[in-house]
Amino acid sequence: MKFFIDTANLKEIQEAQDLGVLDGVTTNPSLMAKEGISGKNNVLKHYKAICDIVEGDVSAEVIATDFEGMIREGEELAELDEKIVVKIPMIKDGVKALKYFSEKGIKTNCTLIFSAGQALLAAKAGASYVSPFIGRLDDISFDGIQLIEQIRTIYDNYGFDTEILAASVRNPIHIIRCAEVGSDVMTGPLSAMLALLNHPLTDSGLAKFLADHAKTNA
Ligand code: G3P
Hints:
By secondary structure, the chain is of the alpha/beta class. It has one domain (2-216): Alpha-Beta Barrel (TIM Barrel), CATH 3.20.20.70. It contains eleven helices and eight strands. The radius of gyration is 19 Å and the shape is globular. 38% of the residues are buried. SN-glycerol-3-phosphate binds next to helix 7. Pathway: Carbohydrate degradation; pentose phosphate pathway; D-glyceraldehyde 3-phosphate and beta-D-fructose 6-phosphate from D-ribose 5-phosphate and D-xylulose 5-phosphate (non-oxidative stage): step 2/3. Its EC number is 2.2.1.2. Transaldolase is important for the balance of metabolites in the pentose-phosphate pathway. It is an enzyme of class 2 (transferase). This is Probable transaldolase.
């Protein structure tokens, strides 16, 4: 399973990259706003800075909600760097934009996926990735992981190439469950990735190894 980091924070992206397990980055307008990035030129510059840190795909979201606007913004984003994946919302004009970009060989990530039907539509339109928001489904007492399983079954039934990118991942259990049910990618915060490191028996085991070594090497 590929690990993407879901942030626009350059320091965190660099830290995940340095860990050696990072496969890409996802952003969205809320994450850009959180970093105080505003104005078209600054936004484009920031995406370029992210592309310069990572080796894999970098999802950059369009703001327009009409077909022409999405195409205009998406083409401008795609020109920035070959790592850019144009992120398109799951709306009617978004489906048309997915088809357009897929025919032009530009990678897309269809965002705000909350149902298997939406994921099926995005795959049929040629999306490179679909982003089901599992944390936000869990928040309203729907099972986010069950949705990933459902999409996995549908995509496998018909051999769709679209990759399932589990988004709105909040914690290490989300990551493990995504891997169990065969998500292609998960995107989450650095804290969830680093939490995978932790086990009390690892800590106590290491402390004992070091103490025993110190005793005989004093
Ligand atoms: O990738 C989508 C993600 O940024 C949404 O996460 O935690 O705001 O639901 P969250």
